[in-house]
Amino acid sequence: AEKLLHRLQKNIGPHPAVAFNLGFIASLRGDHAACSSLIMEWADVDAATPLDPDLQSLWLRCLHQLGQLDLAFAWAQGRLSQASLHSEALGIASLIALDLAELVTARDWAEQSLKDNPALTEALMTRGSIALGERDSAQAMRDMQKILRLHPRDGRAWSGLGFAQMLALDLDGARRSLEQAVSSMPGHLGTWHGLGWTCLLQKDYPSAQRA
Questions:
Q1: Cα–Cα distance between 199 and 205 in angstroms, integer?
Q2: If you average pLDDT over residues 53-76, what whole number do you get?
Q3: pTM, whole model, 2 decimals?
Q4: Of 84, 137, 162, 203, whose Cβ has the fewest other Cβ atoms within 10 Å?
Q5: Average pLDDT score, the chain
Q6: Could you give phi then psi for residue 55, rounded to 5 degrees?
Q7: Distance between terminal CA atoms of the chain?
């Protein structure tokens, strides 16, 4: 696909659809910097400029992965003020707001987005994470399990599920979920802490110490 797209780009010159697809390929490879450079000129435009919904979503996911949260949040706010932010992009923006600790905005954006797309991963993650923070383990588990049915290797969802199970005192379930989470994202310290505490509560002290 990439070879064909480069050939098409050579024949017709710069085009947003070609740039989007090349950026999407880069994102699938985990090269979010390359994705950003490919789509920036088409995505980072005036908020009133019409913009394809898929390009909006890819741009926000790319910025999120690159840790450019303030830029992504401001971009989403600008589009929202012009009524030009698509509902899927709004759901992605809700997770960005959550990671910026803008909890009221995050909840509002997630709920709005889920009305149109009840299976959107980012919006479910936002709602579930907020529920976990409010000690609503049942809602948190429901949202994390919905994500995992769609994306069974999502480490952040496994971590959220594990903490919700821990809150509900399901220590065996929490341990399984947190072990799955650290296998997917071994650098996430908070999840290792959760796994350590779960092992400690189970009185498995060697495993707690290893975690």
A1: 7
A2: 98
A3: 0.93
A4: 203
A5: 97
A6: -70, -40
A7: 42
